[in-house]
Amino acid sequence: MTDKNQESAERVFSRPINVEKIKSLGLREHITANEQECKLLAQQLDIKAVKDLSLTCVLMPWKKGGVQINGEISATIEEICVVTLEPFTTQVRESVERIFERAGGPPAQAPVLDLESIEDDVPDVIDGGSIDIGEIAVETLALSLSAYPRKPGAVFQNHMESDPDSNDDPAKKNPFDVLKQLKKH
H-helix or E-strand containing 74? Predict the structure, then answer.
């Protein structure tokens, strides 16, 4: 499979917006994934199910030919708990704040205040005159997923750690007890 075919196969929830449609007052968009897209997204994200996914956003002109996107994704997903191995449903709401600039010009350099802000402050590049807001929704959802999903209230039971009341726990022993034993002899 070529890179272009592979890329289009990965874009399950594609909703490209032509940048030329974005006027000075902005463009308001609301998109929702259909049932088939939700099934494919669950496979792509490696979770049990995506029951729904939507993005509501406003696209505004930014600097010279760029676009600023502000909005929110909303999703209902079903994951498998790493503790109980039971499925559970989660409501996801995440804000979306992205900036895109046209390709070809010098990249905008955002001031770096700390290491965590490096990735967030660099604008994305507008590819082919359009921005795929569906892919923005999928990326935002993917980044909000927990690597180890845990059902609310799930606790480990019968695990291998020792009994908290037991004196056999080496972590509870004072390391200087050995020295006390040497001093007695």
Answer: strand 66-80
Element of type H or E holding 56: strand 49-62
pLDDT tens for residues 108-164? 555 555 555 545 568 889 888 999 999 999 999 999 999 999 998 888 776 554 455
Strand order across the 66-80 sheet: 27-32, 49-62, 66-80, 87-102, 124-126
pTM of the predicted protein model: 0.73
User: String of b and e for 12-41 (b: at least 16 CB within 10 Å)?
Assistant: bbebebebeebeeebbebebbbeeebbebb
93 class by beta-carbon count within 10 Å (0-12 exposed, 13-18 middle, 19+ buried): exposed
